[in-house]
Structures are given as structure tokens and as C-alpha cells.
Amino acid sequence: MLIVCNICFGQQDLNQEINSLRDSVLFYRYSDPDKAIDFGFEVLKIADFSNPITSLVGVHSQIGEILYYRGLYADAIGFYNESIKLFEAIPIESRNEKKISLPPWILVNIGNVYYINNDFKNATIKYNEALLNFKLFDNIKNKNFGISTVYDNLGSIAELENDFELSIEYYSKAYEIRKENNKIEDLLVSEMHLMTVNMSQHNMFNVNKHFIEIEKLYNQEKNNYLYDDFSKSFTTRNYGYAYKHMGSYYLKAEKYKVANEFFEKAQELLSDFPYELPSLQSKIAECYLGLKNYEKAIASANHNINLIKLNLFNKSKINNYKILEKIYYEKGDLNNLIKVKDSLLLISKSGYDLNISNKMSDLETNIVLSKKRSEINKSRIMYNTYLFILIICFTILAFSLVSLRLNFNLEKEKSKKILNEKIIVENDLNHKKVELLNKSNFISQRNENLNYLLESVDYIESNTSNSSIQIKQKIKDLLRTENLNDRFEKHFEDVYPGFFKSLIRYSSKLTQNDLRFCAYLKMNQSTDEIAKLTSISIRTVESKKYRVKKKFKIGKDQSLTGFIHSI
After folding, report:
1. Which of 143, 158, 236, 401 would be a feasible disulfide site paired with 163, CB 3.0-4.6 Å?
2. What does the mean pLDDT of the chain come to?
3. From residue 221, how far is each of 182, 215, 224, 226, 270 by CA, in Å?
């Protein structure tokens, strides 16, 4: 347990450290990119790549973005590629957004590399892929921010292809999303894009209208800003972009003085954003060239080249060298012209472009493989899901069949038991009926014999002593023995339980002899048989039937025997 706890807490501490360093990368990526990269590489030193987390994906993407802004597109693509690989290695349940197939911000950044290299077709493909993934976001704020950014990028491509109607449509969609959030720095972006598309159509009325709105939003945010360093805010950056775009428009129109004023203002606003300065300083040198102020143009171009370290911002370097090339060519300064051309050759742009091409090819291959892996994983998950459902259904079916079989056997046993009990009860009842019938027959025969004896005794009475009278009396006592009556009623109750109680409910006037008489009728005894059983005449039996019928209040048309059997 101690080992497991140490591993878990150690991993948790490592993840917290990575998240903290990533926050530093995000904080410094625009204002101090060198420091941001240092923090990023610190993450790469301590990270456990066998157990990647979302923050590690983000760090790779942000390092790639910093390199992209510095013009190191091939290196940026390498980090984007690694970022995608790490994303694929993270289990779906551990991702922030579980529905996406690829991280859309990385797709946007890859699209930007295509865009900056004028490959608008592939850029559009990447932006649309990013759009589809942004729409799958559960976080509404991030979803809207991503979708509006993609619409801006698609609008920029349409603008460069002179499809201004489509461009305005995309920019307007982004603007409507941002209006809902009412975030000034984002609204500035939309106003700026709408301004540039009107520049492309030379509609200066709308250009100025949007520029005035930009200034209004900027001042509004500046007056309400609650934090320090407003100059480092995205609002200031986006405001500076607006001045840069205005300068670029007037530079293209060869209004160098006005363009230079806008560029100078943009340089002032963007002084805390190192990415933007090389291209701005290059454009300022270009303005001096246009104004024929060669000394300032040369000084500015050389200053710009010296500020760019290593192989960063190659496009800005090339632009500055081309400015120097034009100046030295116009002045006829062949020595410096040769030096400039040698410097341009040293940059070896063709080899650099080839490196970008190779990296892009590797990236696209990796993306295709990632999609295939994703499709295979989805198919495997679907197959496993169906298999799991099938196993569950089969298990439920098996349990159901077993349960039904057990219930069937149980019910069968119950039925068999009930049938056996019924047979036993019926046998017992039949036995009692036979016993009762035998008892009745015995009583009948006994009474018949006793009556015969009585008649015999009457015949010899005159010739015998008084002892014959005693014999006669004993026979009469025997005929009236209550013990036999009790035994008869007991046997009858066993065969026909509750019969006597039912009779009493119909009539409370019944005597014990009436109850016994009804019992004989229930047993289907005829009038003759009843007369023998009770040692009375047939006429007396008929009279008794009449009296009992009257006590039950039975109509003349109804039979007493039928009434007795209905009870």
C-alpha cells in the first residue's frame, strides 16, 4: 500500500508541476517567448511520456505555436505532430473533451502553417476539420471561441481569393458569436476583419467606420480595465493589429508617409509582443525606401536584421535584405549589393521549404494513421459493446430458461402432490361412504332380524313364561340404543361435513329424528329402506316426509329428496 500510495502521490505531484509550468508557458508565450520556451522544455525534461496527460499535449502545441510565430514552420510542425501522438495515447475517459477525434486547436495551427505558405486548399481542409471537432465540445465558452476563430480563418482565405461575399459571411458569423459573449478583445478582432475585407474592395467609408468602432471599443476597455499592464493585454495587441492593417493598406497604395505613421503607432502598441516587431520594422524600412530616404531605410533594415537572432523570422530577414538590395541597386553600390545577395543565398530558402514539405508530409501521414486508429478503436469498441450485450442477453436467456425449467418442475411436483392428496382424500371419502353404507345395511338387517324376533316372541308369548316378556323388552331396548345413533351420525358427518348445520339454518324446528331422516334421504335411501332402518311402517315414513317438507316450507311441486341433495 505504501508503494502504491507513493506512486500515486508522486504522479499527482508531477502532474501538478506540469500544469504549473504550462501556465507559465501560456503567460509568457506572447510577451516573452524565450522564457515561455524555457518553461516548455522544462516540462519535456520531467514529463512521463508513458503516461501522457492533457497538459503535456498542450505544452507541445504551445511550443509549436511559438516556433510558428518565429517563422520556424518545420520545427512547429514537428511539435504539432508529437502533440497529436500524445493526444492519441490519452484514454478517452481522461480527456477534457471526450467526443472529439483530434484536438481542434492543433488542427487550426496546422492550417495556419498551410495558410502562411499559401496552400489555401489544405488550410481550408484543416480549418473545416477543426470546426467539426469544435462543434463537439461540451464546454460552450471554448466551443464558441474555437468556432469564431475558424470562421475568421476561413474568411481570410476567401478574402485572399477575392470571394468577398463569402468572406463577409464568415466574418459576420464570427461577429455574431462574439457579440453574445461581449468580450472587447474578441469584438476588436471581428471589427478588424470586417475592416480588412472592405480594404480589399477599396470601400474606405466602411473601412473608416470600422476603424472608428475599433478605437471606441479600445478606449472603452481602457477606461474600464481593472488590472495592471494594459499595454500587455490582448485588447492592446488587437488594437495594434488594426493600425498595422491600416499601414499595410496605405503602403500598398504607395502612400508611404501615411503608412509609416500607422506602422509607427502599431510598433508602439505592439512593443510588448515580440512576434509582431520584425515584420513591422521591415515595413517601416520599406516606407523609408518608398520615400527615397535611403539613409533611414538602410539604417532601419540593418537594425532589423541585427535584432533577429539565429534563423528566426526568415521572411522578415529576406524582406529587409530585399530592401537593401533595391537601395544598393538604385545607388549603384555593387560591393554592398553582392554582400546582400550572398546573405540571401545563405538563408537557403529552398532547403528550408523542402524541410517544411517533408515535415508536413510526415504530419499528414500521422494524422491519417491517427484517424485510422480512431476508426479501428471505434469499431473495436462497437464490437465489444455488441459482444457484451450479446453475452448479457445470452446469460439472461440462460437464467430465464433455467428459472422456467425449475418453476415448471416445481409446479409439476405441486400438481402431482395435489393430485396424490386428492386421490387420498377421495379414497378416504369413498371408504367412509362404503363404511357408512355398510353400517346402514347392518342396522337395516339388524332391525329386520329384531323385528322378526319380536313377531316370533309375540307368537309364542301365550305358551311361555314371563321371561319372554323380558326378552321382548331387551330387543326393544336394543332397537333404541343411542350408541348406534351416535356412531351413525359421526360417520355421516365425516362423509358429509356441515350437512346438519346447513339443515338447521334452513329450519330451526327440526328434531334429532328429523335430522337423521334427512341424512337417510341424503344417502339415497328409499322409503322401504328408511322404514327398515327406523323400524317404522312405510306409511309412517311418508307422513314423516310430509312433516319435514312442511318445516322446510317447500312447495308442492318441489321434491324433498331433490331439496336435500341441493344442500
Report:
1. 158
2. 83
3. 11, 10, 5, 9, 17
CB 256, CB 287: distance < 8 Å: yes
Residue 137: closest CA among 103, 111, 89: 103
Judge contact between 329 and 85, C-beta under 8 A.
Answer: no
Least confident of 230-244, 400-414, 442-456, 493-507: 442-456
Q: Which residues are CB-neighbours of 356 under 8 A, at least 6 positions away?
A: 73, 74, 77, 113, 117
Q: Give me the percent of the chain exceeding a pLDDT of 70.
A: 81
pLDDT of residue 444: 61
pLDDT in tens, 106-139: 999 999 999 998 999 999 999 999 999 999 999 9
Three-state DSSP class for residue 119: coil
The C-alpha cell at 410 is 416445481
User: Which triple of cell numbers denotes residue 44?
Assistant: 519535456
Helix (H) or strand (E) holding 498: none
Three-class SS of 159-208: HHCCCHHHHHHHHHHHHHHHHHHCCHHHHHHHHHHHHHHHHHCCCHHHHH
By the 10 Å C-beta count (0-12 exposed, 13-18 middle, 19+ buried), 183 is classed as middle
The Cα–Cα gap between 210 and 282 comes to 26
CA angle 42, 45, 48 (to 5 degrees): 120
Q: Which distant-in-sequence residues (6+ apart) come within 8 Å of 105 by Cβ?
A: 61, 130, 146
Residue range 378-401, pLDDT digits in tens: 565 676 778 888 899 888 988 888
DSSP state of 1: -
CA atoms of 378 and 376, how far apart (whole Å): 5
